[in-house]
Write a structure and sequence with these properties.
alpha/beta, TIM Barrel, eight-stranded parallel beta sheet, four-stranded antiparallel beta sheet, globular
Length: 391
Amino acid sequence: MNAKERILTTLDHEEPDRVPSYEASIDNLAIYNHYGIKYGYLGNGDLLKKVYDLAKGDTELLKKFIDKTNKVSDSLTPAIELYKKAGIDLCAIYVTNLPVFYEREGIIDDLGRRMHFIKNPSDDMDVLYYKGGYFKNFDDFESFPPLDPDDPVRENIFRNAKMIEDKFKGKVYTMPSIFGLFEAAWQGFGLETFSRLFTQPKIIQKIFEFKGKFLVEMVKRILEWGEENIILMGDDYGYKKGLLMNPRYYRKYVFPWIKKICQTAHNGGVKVLFHSCGDISLIFEDLINCGIDAIHPIEPTTANPEFNIFDLYQKFGDQITFVGNVSPQDLADKNPEVIRDYVKKLIKGLAPHGGFILSSGHSINPAIKLENFLMMQKTLREYGKYPINVN
């Protein structure tokens, strides 16, 4: 089987040739170096500062220069090639969160998020981190350049990813990915400012409607571009100790749109993989009822022992595919034998009969040990073949 066939068979709760794998992102210089691939963001923070200074802070001039010189394929190829070499089947390619303005330290994206390059202290690796919201109030939100599903950059990203996928002859599948409603809404304002807006329900309703309509249109565009299989929607609803918003607000403002997004995708024959960090146990069944087909990652380090991928699989395993969930904390701190044992446990408990995709419990960050990442992949290759036989 190729990567696409493996993933689709699993999503249909049937057994492929082996358990497929996925990572939301890999931002780890040691891993790139191990496979002999140059990390795409390496040196970008320093380069942006130099170009910004040369442009004397003229962000429009800076944007024209970057748009002219930055080739989409140059930034996509290293990441997709890394997935191929590491044997990871599924790679997320974001067609939202595009740069709108540039600052000396980073960008302001189309969601109104300030994203700055920060160097990892151990290896000077540049990683983009969320640094706060651009909007100080609702007026700022309304005057910001509106989200445009027909921005040609979005389709260009999709088509370049598929061209690279074709080049690698089915070894990796590139999944078009969009941000969801809640995280995209609050991060543009910052959580404190956004929370205060709930005293004005009409404004909150308007913000979620704006985001929801855009995402429905984005799914329609992705279908028009030719996607036939799966999309990712990322929208963090929780943190270690529970939900970031009252469940009734999710049910009032967010889930009606998630349901429309899923319906739109399903009408085009495409499945939806949904990502949320944190303890989302109170709304887990709501998400299933919205129509999502797979869930990532069932974060393994929440404070709630009942939010457990094995228990949830026993209850909902026939309704949804589970994608997860080797703890990034363990990947950073523990020895390879611990990783090996947990991957075996995941495969033994979740993989029989399909419906399970292996990944970390979030993504591969700079702190993760190379030997632990390699052990995760090695254990999957050793024990992930069907029929599953883990002793």
